Amino acid sequence: MSNNQSITVIITYAQKNKVYNIEIDPSTKVQELINEFYEMLHPSGQEKIVLRYQGTQLNPNRTFEEQGVRKGTQIDLLVETQGGL
């Protein structure tokens, strides 16, 4: 039985000097939060949003819980251009 305890994580978007405190369910897939950021940030078609925790890119297809994300965890948000030049 999963406990649906929301946790607050700190998302740091250094490229724009923004910090977001976001409440998530630890059993949420990382991709779901990335999708929310797409709606908020509207990156261009060539850009993709990446979330990193302790220097490692979070796997979008796994949950936050599976990847050790806990309450108060700081996650870095990066917008990367795909395909180089």
UniProtKB/TrEMBL annotation:
Domain of life: Eukaryota
Domain Ubiquitin-like stretches: 7-84
InterPro entries cross-referenced by the UniProt entry: Rad60/SUMO-like_dom, Ubiquitin-like_dom
Pfam family, one: Rad60-SLD
Organism phylogeny: Eukaryota, Sar, Alveolata, Ciliophora, Intramacronucleata
Protein name stated in the entry: Ubiquitin-like domain-containing protein
PROSITE patterns reported for this sequence: UBIQUITIN_2 (PS50053)
Natural source organism: Paramecium primaurelia
